[in-house]
From TrEMBL:
The lineage of its organism: Eukaryota, Viridiplantae, Streptophyta, Embryophyta, Tracheophyta. The keyword Transmembrane helix applies. Keywords: Membrane, Transmembrane, Transmembrane helix. It comes from the Eukaryota. The keyword Oxidoreductase does not apply. This is Expressed protein. The chain crosses the membrane at residues 31-49, 61-82.
Length: 152
């Protein structure tokens, strides 16, 4: 029963790790799409304004306002996407740490079983305490958050 429980935990966290990886990849594709659309939009605006007969000072406020607004929307979209990516990376790291702990517990359990863990009466003592099998959700240390801080 102990083996089955730990194997289930390992399987769950392995699947969660893969799920978070797929979510990160999807968000990165979304980010690339945002950049592509934004640069296409910029090129269209600049091409429309580059015609010399249409470029007059009294009409420049409309493209400037449009470009400023589009930059703001682009910045907010990129910031939100990066926040999602960082959240998924954090969750993936937590699942990986928990997966590592569960794997280590399973290895210890197998080692005890292989070494013939039994008491003087011949009863198997693979698990001496039920708390020994508890695997809590692991979180990375505070230093892990340093990689998500912006330096600009």
């Amino acid at each position: 029963a102990a083996f089955q429980a730990i194997n289930t935990i390992i399987q769950l966290h392995f699947e969660k790790t893969l799920e978070k990886k797929r979510a990160i990849d999807l968000q990165k594709k979304e980010l690339h799409k945002l950049f592509l659309l934004f640069f296409i939009f910029l090129s269209l605006i600049f091409m429309a304004e580059a015609q010399p007969n249409r470029l007059q000072c009294r009409h420049c406020w409309a493209p400037i306002t449009l470009l400023s607004l589009s930059h703001l929307i682009f910045y907010v979209s990129v910031a939100q996407t990066l926040r999602c990516i960082n959240g998924f990376k954090y969750q993936r790291r937590c699942h990986k740490l928990t997966l590592g702990l569960a794997t280590e517990k399973l290895r210890e359990l197998k080692t005890r079983l292989a070494s013939g863990g039994s008491d003087q009466y011949g009863h198997e003592l693979v698990v001496s305490d039920e708390g020994e099998l508890e695997i809590h959700y692991q979180e990375p240390p505070e230093s892990y958050f340093g990689k998500f801080k912006r330096n600009w």
